[in-house]
């Protein structure tokens, strides 16, 4: 049965792969963006998730056009990498505001309709960096680690209403950006990955698709790594 799915930041990269996977299986898929083109077959809505009014307006529009959001994939995120002693207040705060507070805003808004329906799936896209840390990413890693606490708290609050909240933690993904890394740097990164390769965005999408399915109805508060073993032990 077709469901209404919202993927924040679903107009490119991992978010686009996730959105297209849901669309291919017949779901009604909306994606938020900040002014970029949206792929055909997806319903685009412009939204800055750091603005509560824009989040509410986006959900209201999606509800009117596609129906209440039944599956939320909180994927939108930014980076502002720099070493701890060089990081500004704004560099730290803006990343937390988008990656963590933005996901919280979307989850809070989605929960109102999920509670009425007594069914819902929330999936938060974290990162291996949120579990193992990464130099130059105190802001990003903190925001991605925070998604784990967010999902697990939602699980304890809403779990009895057939609403699940899980986290997917990707490792290194094959993207245009990683393809441009110097060969020596790519080799250095690959040497630390037991799987000996970068992931494809579709592999992250497959994990998200599973967690959104009926088959995963008893999986909640979980962290599912898609990292080739890079973050083992964290």
TrEMBL record:
Q: What residue stretch is flagged as signal peptide?
A: none
User: What GO molecular function terms would the record report?
Assistant: oxidoreductase activity, acting on the CH-OH group of donors, NAD or NADP as acceptor
Q: Where is the Ketoreductase domain?
A: 3-176
Kindly list the biological process annotations in GO that this record carries.
fatty acid elongation
Q: Does the keyword Oxidoreductase apply?
A: yes
Q: Which UniProt keywords apply?
A: Oxidoreductase
The chain's coiled-coil residues are: none
Q: Which domain of life is it from?
A: Bacteria
Family from the record? Belongs to the short-chain dehydrogenases/reductases (SDR) family.
**Would you tell me the protein name for this molecule?**
Beta-ketoacyl-ACP reductase
Q: Which species does this protein come from?
A: Actinocatenispora thailandica
